[in-house]
Design goal:
Oligomer: single chain
Strand order of the largest sheet: 2-1-3-4
Number of helices: 11
Structural class: alpha+beta
Order of helices and strands: EHEHEEHHHHHHHHH
Radius of gyration: 18 Å
Length: 225
C-alpha cells in the first residue's frame, strides 16, 4: 500500500471522542503517526487548510492528503492498513450493520450527551431520558456478545462507541444518575474494552474530562451547581 507510517499526521483535540476513536484504531494497527493538538478556539492554519469545508477535527493527513470526518477516517484506516486487526467484518451484510450502528452512535450520543452535561431543569431531564434509551438500544444490540464486533476482538462499532465512555462520569455527575444502574451490560462491556492497552492508552481519565466540562460550563456561563 502506498505510503509509510511516517506519512501519517492526526490533527486532534484530547477530549474529543471523535479523535479518540482514531487514536484507538491507529494503536490497534500499530501505526506510527504524528499527533498534533489543536486549539478549537484558535484553529491552526493547517487545520483550516486541511478541512476547509467543516474546519473541524479530527483530520488524518496521509501522504499530505487530508481525510475528514471520523467514521470516514476510521474506515480509511481499516482499508489502508487492512493486514492487521481488521475492524469491519468481511461479509457485506455484516459490514452494513456495523456501519449502521456506528452511524447511530454518531447521530445520537454526542448531541444528546451534550444536552445532558450542559442542560438544566426539564431540558436536562428530557435529555437524560433520551440518553438512557439510546444506551439501552445499544445494549440490546450488544446482547451477550463480548464486543459489538463479536467475542474475539473489538470491531468498528466498539471503536466508534467506546470513547464516549470516558464522558460517562461527566454525564452522570452533571445529571445525577447512574449509567451502570440502567445499563449494566454496557458498562461491563466498557470495562472489558478498557482492559485492552490500545483503548486504555487512548482515552483520557474520566475525571480529566469532567474538569474540562467544568471549564466549558464556566466559559459559556452555564450553571455549574
Amino acid at each position: 500500500m502506498e505510503g509509510t507510517n511516517n506519512d501519517v499526521v492526526l490533527l486532534d483535540f484530547w477530549p474529543s471522542s471523535f479523535g479518540m476513536r482514531l487514536r484507538i484504531a491507529l494503536a490497534l494497527k500499530g501505526i506510527q503517526y504524528e499527533g498534533r493538538e489543536e486549539n478549537l478556539f484558535d484553529k491552526s492554519t493547517l487545520l483550516l487548510e486541511m478541512n476547509s469545508v467543516h474546519k473541524k477535527i479530527p483530520v488524518l493527513i496521509h501522504n499530505g492528503k487530508p481525510i475528514c470526518e471520523s467514521l470516514i477516517i476510521l474506515e480509511y484506516i481499516d482499508q489502508v492498513w487492512h493486514d492487521k486487526y481488521p475492524l469491519l467484518p468481511s461479509h457485506p451484510y455484516d459490514r452494513s450493520q456495523a456501519r449502521f450502528w456506528a452511524d447511530y452512535v454518531d447521530k445520537k450520543i454526542y448531541s444528546t450527551g451534550r444536552r445532558v452535561w450542559s442542560g438544566k431543569g426539564e431540558d436536562q431531564e428530557e435529555a437524560k431520558k433520551e440518553f438512557i434509551e439510546i444506551l439501552k438500544t445499544l445494549e440490546g444490540e450488544l446482547g451477550d456478545k463480548t464486543y459489538f464486533g463479536g467475542d474475539d476482538n473489538l470491531g468498528f462499532v466498539d471503536v466508534a462507541l467506546v470513547p464516549f465512555t470516558s464522558w460517562f462520569y461527566s454525564y452522570e455527575t452533571c445529571a445525577s444518575f447512574s449509567i451502570e444502574a440502567v445499563c449494566p451490560k454496557l458498562v461491563a462491556w466498557a470495562k472489558r474494552c478498557m482492559q485492552i492497552e490500545s483503548v486504555a492508552n487512548s482515552l483520557p481519565h474520566p475525571h480529566k474530562i469532567y474538569d474540562y466540562v467544568l471549564e466549558l460550563k464556566n466559559k459559556f456561563g452555564l450553571d455549574t451547581n
